[in-house]
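In this supplementary section we document a worked example of the pipeline. Step one takes a protein sequence of length 735 as its only input; no multiple sequence alignment statistics are reported here. Step two produces a three-dimensional model, which step three serialises into structure tokens for compact storage. The input and output of this example are shown verbatim.
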Amino acid sequence: MSETMSTNEEKKLPLNGRRAIPPNYSNDEENEVPEMEAFGLIPRGFNPRDYLRVEEIYMFKDPHEINKQEHHTDKYYNPKLIVRRGQSFQIQIYFNRPYKPETDQFWLEFLMGRYPQQNKGTYIPIAVGNVLKPGQWGAKIIHRENNSIRLSIMSSTTCIIGKFRLYVAVLTPFGILRTRRNSATDTYILFNPWCQLDAVYLDDEKEREEYVLNDVGVVFHGNVEDIKSRSWSYGQFEENVLDACLFLMDKAELELSGRGNPIKICRVASAVINSRDENGVIAGSWNNSYDDGVAPSAWTGSVDILLEYYSSKQPVRYGQCWVFAGVFNTFLRCLGIPARLITNYSSAHDNNANLRLDFFLDDEGKVDTRLTKDSVWNYHCWNEAWMTRPDLPVGFGGWQVVDGTPQETSDGMYRCGPASVQAIKHGHVCFQFDAPFVYAEVNSDIFYTKMEKNGTQVVESIDTTRVGQLIVTKEVGGDGMVDITEEYKFREGSDEERLALETAVMYGVKKQSIQDTTYQPQTDVEMDFQAQKAVLGNDFKVTITFRNKSRNSYTATTYLSGNIVFYTGVTKSEFKKHSFSAKLEPSSSSSFDIVIRSREYMSDLLEQASFHFFVTARINETGKILAVQKATVLEIPALRIKTKGELVAGKEMSVIVEFTNPLKQTLENVTLRLEGPGVLRTIKKQFGRIPMNSTLTWEVKCIPMRPGLRKLIASLSSDALRHVYGELNVQIQKP
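The serialised model returned by step three reads:
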């Protein structure tokens, strides 16, 4: 194709001594394709109408027709043909007269981008033959009737993912005649988890239905002791979402020729999902003030975010980890890469990947926030994408961690992954990409270190079990939770776990041995801390329990610090200080209750209603320190959703959302959001205020488009209260 560029075209190209053709980043740009490509001087009597001519190309592109049905693409709200690579599809060509194979010669051409080239996979000529070879480009005639022929076309299993333009070329003695540019015949080609030769092949049909075709998911949040869940609408089949996802690869400047490789796509996407480099999709914000955007907790799904970015080309404000992960999941499933959203409870954000989080204590045993740089997130969400890893030794394919939340840079950009889950479990963190960082997120130890006056550090206590103690995802085919911790790590304390750790250290994960530091803990006294489950706006109590296993009497000077924290474990403010002296009798347990009043915490509360308690106790007789920390999350009341009228596709129905204000104050600046893929597009409504104890009711009329089991998801956001959700499963009947 590129050889036939007209001379004025060649003049326009910027000169570059390294490459003849400029980089080809855009799936959207096009080149001019001549309708008549002459072989030389054309004789005067030449009339193109004397030769075989294409009158029409029929693509079988409606959702109920063979192509979209067989390729599992019938759910996409997109009028064009969408097929998956490595699997045959059909088109019908109508000529001006019957096709004569002895004398007529035609072929198909698929083109992508501005500078199509055959060796880059962006110009694909397909001759019509007698057989289709699996996994290779080809076409054969399967039916002839009057002036038409039906073709079966096979695409390559390593084909580029994106939107191709289709031309039919006919050979004449004097040149090549081509069909005119017609966007109605554009063809999207996606990854194919149903095809054994595809790098993303997944062999379980139920898993494919969940990880590729399910457009709603569940995000688990809260903390280990109090797991909360909410639904998230991925909406990968909604109108314009596929184009928005292809635009992300253009934005990330991924060469078109690299777009058949899921490893490359995941790596560039993990950078472009966040705005830290090159103005990516979502701007992160963890500071609780979101006046110039949408609070992260208010989003109910990915579609609004992707479409806003696609139209404005500017980062959408604001997101936190589950928003980055939700949008990333939409991107992966939309392109056909099996993907799931993961939550790691007590996730270590270790600033120097040394498998050790340092919490520094001052003289009184309180945590020194000035010196403490590391933090434990109550939870952190990332994604797993399923693919082979031909770039790694055998055995490291399968689920790969990819993370779009900007935490640390990797090769100079804020991105993370793909890192093999199997490699993380076995400590083989030498294999690309970013395995040491993920290994630390699930395996770090917490060191409580006291700074002495002379500058020496004394380790007072080590917690080896808190970080990464639970890793979960949504179950296949339901909304329940599955514990996948054992896919990331061996059982705490097992021989295999020690071995995996030694392997990780050998491969360069830094770990200071305990021998390097003076550490003799108090072993004959144990301290435990429990918080009562409580509803937002109420008082609750916390209990500190000591077990003195020795025959000595001890006194413990005990200090409790209650902090309001971001879910990332970073403190906003200390709202409760309480110290007391505890008498510990020999061989006995003693418990102490402390009441937390709602007035103490309400004014400073952050959106996820997360508290973090530090308890430190000094045993006066020995000078040793006991330390324990616990996160706790308040119960936030839910929205109630119900429906009115018949639930039939194509008929009007009503959705009613209700909420009762539980707080002892008026809620200001209330925004409600409601969405449900296949039932209604996201609708937002502002309400000025909801007085205390009063109930807000909002009725929305809509016409559901798709029959089947659908999910309605709602969220409420206000100045004093966020993270309020509700959901409802609805069965839409066929008309």
